[in-house]
Amino acid sequence: MKTAVLLLRRASVHSVLMLVTIGSLFAQTDSDSSSPPVGFYKDLFMSSGVNLSSRKSLPAAESLGLSYEYYAGKDAEIQNRLMTGEQHDTNGVLLYPDGAPRFRMIYVNGGGATNHGKSLELNGRQTLRQFFNAGGSYCGSCAGSFLSGRNVDSSSNRRLGYLHIFPYNTLNTGLKKEQLDHVIPDDSPLLKYRQFGTENRVEGVYHNNGNWMSLEKGEHLEHTEVLAIYDTPGKRPDQGAAIWAYKVKAETGRVVNIGSHPEGVKTGDHLSLTEACFLYSLDGTGVPNIKGKLVAGEMREMLADTTDKTPAFAKIGDGQIHHFSFQVEVCIAKTVIDISTEVDVQLNLYLSQDLSGITTDERAYRVTGAGGNKSLRVRLAPGTWYVAVECANRVRAVKDDSESYYVYDDPQGLLNGVAYSVGLQQRLRRRYLRVVGPVASVK
């Protein structure tokens, strides 16, 4: 009944408003089994690069049906080209032209944290920080956990090579090639996603020179969630944090650090533990960023490249969504939103008073389908409204001959972004026609 009323309400809108399942818009890339995520190119990027384990498969990502890519090689030049960009992709694989995360999450494998971080060079580390600060989540095991932090043990300086997105030191366990039990506390967010063995115990998780965090009082616990605890009587990390999470600002992603190595196991509690960590990390991606307020009578030109460093006016990337806002006053009778582009791509247009899930909300106004030139003509209630512009096209990805990374087929230049314009027009109600103001008249 609710859906029928909604359709009748929209019958007077002078556009074809279509509800299209997001997954049907795109062909699958490579061997991915899942539909692309809304607002991102893919779900996860796995870092298996210089001084890290050269892992090419991630069991938890596959069991969860996540789309993912990776770099799994020892060539610093290739690694850093992927991370920081080149001519045909000036922002690198992790970022969109405006610096927003292109993947929902990055996962960093075990290995040598400091040497890996140094191999990324300053530009690569800044890219990872930008990824996190702009809303992408971070999950790392062992070396990947160390890498996110400030330093190790009691060192007072910020370690060169580390990312410092988890702004505290972690501790060395000093334990090599051991099997350590993990206990999931009753208040751990991981229990929202998976249940574990007897008394929430995960037995015998492989551990090799990983890290931990003390649960004794300190500033490092103020914004940190303890997700799992080591149960290793007589050993250094006993009753310390084995897995923890950090997120302070709504705009950033969430850090989930794993001190041991459950990620390679394909079954049982070890797999469930990794799945739960990934799901909590993914649920911590940052809230949408509003590019700016649309002004009646003006076209907003989204033409900037990455190198222009004006993200509020940047081009839109493959699978990306840009968000804008505008105000409807009581004097407004009709509102028109227009988008246009000279590139042969599909841009979708959405309009709602609810920013969260605007592209999937059945109550949102929408115009989808082929082409990039679209309009919405609607009568809106007074208040704040949000516009979402979505680039439905994505590049095609195939593995390099070495199968250590992916190369893209991008004839439309999506990696460097699609230029487009978005405009707002508003018509006054008749009794306000004599009011002088910045509102543009609509025929």
The amount of helix comes to 10-25%
Unreliable parts? 1-31
Backbone shape: globular
Tell me the total number of β-strands.
Answer: 22
CATH fold name of the largest domain = Rossmann fold
- Named CATH architecture of the largest domain: 3-Layer(aba) Sandwich
The helix count comes to 7
Strand fraction: 25-35%
The pLDDT mean sits at 91
Would you state the CATH class of the largest domain? Alpha Beta
Question: Which strands sit side by side, in order, in the main sheet?
Answer: 2-1-3-4-11-10-9-6-7
Order of helices and strands: HEHEHEHHEHEEEEEEEHEEEEEEEEEEE
The biggest beta sheet, please?
Answer: 9 strands, mixed
Tell me the quaternary state: single chain
Number of domains: 2
Query: What is the rounded distance between the termini?
Result: 34 Å
Radius of gyration: 24 Å
What structural class do helix, strand and pairing data support? alpha+beta
* CATH H level, superfamily name of the largest domain: Class I glutamine amidotransferase (GATase) domain
Describe it for me?
The chain has seven helices and 22 strands. The strands form five sheets. The protein has a nine-stranded mixed β-sheet with strand order 2-1-3-4-11-10-9-6-7. Helix content is 14%, strand content 27%. The protein has two domains: 2-18 and 290-432, Sandwich (Jelly Rolls); 31-282, 3-Layer(aba) Sandwich (Rossmann fold), CATH 3.40.50.880. It has 443 residues and is of the alpha+beta class.
